[in-house]
Design a protein that fits this description.
This protein is an alpha+beta fold. The protein has 2 helices and 3 strands; from the N terminus they run ααβββ.
């Protein structure tokens, strides 16, 4: 009987640590995907020379994904454009029921 309790406790610990590991890996995959999406937005903005039509298109396309995109013009001079690009997404841990909003912030210009 003692062995059975020890094996069950060991199995329970392994299951909990496995769940924590899977959640951590999934969270990192989601964060890396958001970083790649952010970088693609910055590249697209710079390649289009910050055209307002491209900014509108990016914000419309973001509505179709799980990301929320904010693009703010932070230019000081008219000759040198600079935009702050923020990509936000919600991550939910299923068994705990915890929600967290992650932000990837960077500048294009």
């Amino acid at each position: 009987m003692k062995m059975m309790i020890e094996y069950f406790t060991l199995f329970l610990f392994i299951a909990v640590f496995l769940l924590i590991g899977i959640t951590y890996v999934n969270q990192n995959i989601s964060l890396n995907a958001a970083r790649e999406y952010h970088q693609s937005i910055v590249t697209e903005l710079q390649d289009s020379d910050f055209a307002s039509s491209v900014v509108d298109e990016i914000q419309n396309n973001a509505a179709a994904t799980n990301y929320k995109v904010e693009i703010l013009d932070t230019s000081i001079a008219a000759t040198k454009k600079k935009y702050k690009v923020t990509v936000m997404f919600d991550y939910r841990i299923p068994l705990v029921g915890m929600n967290q909003t992650y932000r990837v912030v960077g500048y294009a210009g």
